[in-house]
Design a protein that fits this description.
Blueprint lengths: L9 H8 L12 H4 L29 H9 L9 E7 L14 H16 L1 E7 L5 H11 L6 E5 L3 H6 L21 H6 L1 E2 L2 E2 L14 E6 H6 L5 H6 L5 H10 L7 E5 L5 H9 L5 E2 L7 E2 L7 H12 L5 E2 L3 H5 L4 E7 L3 H4 L6 E4 L12 E2 L5 E4 L7 H13 L4 H13 L5 H11 L1 E2 L2 H5 L4 H16 L4 H20 L4
Parallel strand pairs: 1-2, 1-3, 7-10, 7-11, 13-15
Antiparallel strand pairs: 3-14, 4-5, 6-11, 6-12, 8-9
Helix pairs in contact: 4-15, 4-16, 11-12, 11-19, 12-19, 16-17, 19-20
Length: 485
């Protein structure tokens, strides 16, 4: 079973047990609303409601764009040789391991690449926890491992530090500027002389993206009957979000927003949604913080308003439970939370993360486990790896995203308008260098998303937080990614 169609967790079991309960003491126990992990009492007078409707699928024809993108790549042939990709995410590459609707798109995409380059694509599943050890053993013995790997973003740093990844700059024919590669992913996985990994249309992982789940009944009841149109018009901003929260002030036993599965990363996602990057990096670039006190002032204001909202549940282990029984306006989560909320009584919909102003685009910060392609150092035919990597992403243009939306629409969503919102969420995908290397280098984490999260609740200015972490961040940036030599 795919990691993205996981079984209901203990929290989901609690949701099912609470289907017939009311919000009870959600607001009366005010400490719990504001971050305590104390368990609240509930009563039993809620009548479940269902809002499931038959999905209306919109089909798109991406054939011309795919043909155009594939034409940019050399027609190199490799005599029907096996092209192996090792990954913990076989569902993204292997139609036999993909869920319904996605498998057909994956099969057609793979076939187009196989025909173009005369290869046979084989996906090799590897356990997440054994990935590093397997590749390391192959590298030490000088044995072939695979032609490409697809790995989670948060593993790139350890693979790179262990000398297991080829510098993508050395791959002939790899064009970092290609439209079917995500430019933010190039920046997020590169620094100094090296580019370690890249993502693109073939690496789409919608489940790692943040979104705003909203209670349609409650929001409509306070005068906001069509948030989908607000998104489409470009007016879905943080100001509008807080306006709705304020309008709900008179609702009893209702919290304004919460987050369970996203955790403290909810503040990272909100920060980046305002159009403010956390880090700046790239090939032949020493990483640096991409913001200062002035440029981040608007983003920090959003975080502080989120944190200080007196009716917010904030990051809390039971926020999703109470949202699922009609006790919350907004739930800010990764899209993977759909599997947990699917069986709840709340009539919910999905929106992209709000933006700072109407002129900005919607931006979705991909999670630390998002999918990246890299080339293991054991590869000998690097041109084949480069060409197939490019072609996989070129041939995925539009079709993989549409397949995911169709699958999600059939299996999780409560209405058809939410499917349209997935376009905004996925099209706004961005990545950050701090999520690639922060897990290995604490100074990078402390100086980026660490201070972003701290800025939500502290009295210290962002300039002070930046100053406190400058030496540690700069030391790692220059020692690991320096270009002076």
């Amino acid at each position: 079973m795919s990691k993205n169609t996981v079984k209901f967790s203990i929290t989901a079991i609690l949701l099912s047990l609470l289907q017939l309960t009311s919000c009870g003491l959600v607001v009366i126990n005010h400490d719990r609303i504001n971050g305590s992990t104390e368990t609240a009492s509930v009563s039993s007078d809620m009548i479940p409601e269902t809002t499931d409707v038959p999905p209306v699928i919109v089909e798109h024809d991406h054939s011309d764009e795919i043909k155009k993108n594939l034409a940019q790549i050399e027609d190199a042939k490799y005599d029907r040789s096996v092209f192996k990709i090792a990954t913990p995410f076989p569902e993204a590459l292997d139609p036999d391991n993909s869920p319904e609707y996605i498998s057909e798109a994956v099969a057609e995409r793979n076939n187009a690449v196989e025909q173009k380059h005369s290869v046979s694509i084989v996906t090799s599943y590897v356990e997440y926890t054994a990935f590093y050890e397997e590749l390391s053993a192959a590298a030490k013995s000088g044995m072939y491992y695979s032609d490409l790997i697809m790995l989670p973003q948060n593993q790139i740093a350890s693979f790179a530090a262990g000398g297991l990844l080829m510098n993508l700059r050395s791959l002939p024919g790899l064009d970092f500027s290609a439209s079917f590669l995500n430019s933010a992913s190039v920046e997020a996985a590169a620094g100094g002389f090296n580019s370690y990994a890249v993502s693109g249309y073939a690496g789409i992982d919608p489940y790692s993206l943040p979104a705003v789940f909203f209670n349609k009944s409650l929001v409509s009841g306070i005068g906001y009957s069509d948030l989908y149109s607000i998104v489409s018009s470009g007016e879905w901003t943080w100001e509008k979000f807080f306006e709705i929260c304020t309008a709900a002030g008179d609702l009893q036993d209702i919290f304004t927003w919460g987050s369970t599965y996203l955790g403290d990363a909810v503040y990272d996602a909100a920060f980046v949604s305002t159009g403010t990057k956390m880090t700046s990096s790239g090939v032949m670039t020493v990483p640096s913080r991409a913001f200062d006190g002035d440029t981040s002032a608007g983003a920090v204001s959003v975080l502080q308003r989120l944190f200080s909202d007196p009716k917010a549940m904030r990051v809390h282990g039971e926020a999703a439970v109470y949202f699922g029984i009609n006790c919350g306006l907004f739930q800010i989560e990764r899209l993977s939370a759909m599997s947990e909320l699917r069986g709840t009584s709340t009539a919910w919909g999905i929106l992209p993360m709000p933006k700072y102003d109407a002129l900005q685009s919607y931006t979705s910060l991909s999670g630390t486990d998002s999918h990246f392609f890299a080339c293991p150092v054991t590869v000998i035919t690097s041109d084949k790896s480069a060409n197939v990597l490019m072609s996989l992403n070129a041939a995925s243009t539009g079709v993989i995203k549409d397949a995911y939306i169709k699958y999600i629409q059939y299996n999780f969503l409560r209405d058809n308008d939410s499917a349209n919102m997935l376009d905004y969420i996925i099209d706004g995908t961005t990545y950050d260098f701090s999520y690639t290397f922060g897990g290995l280098y604490g100074q990078i984490a402390d100086g980026t998303y660490g201070i972003v999260r701290e800025s939500a609740s502290t009295d210290s200015s962002m300039d002070t937080l930046l100053g406190n972490t400058a030496s540690g961040f700069n030391r790692i940036a220059n020692s690991v990614f320096g270009i002076s030599n």
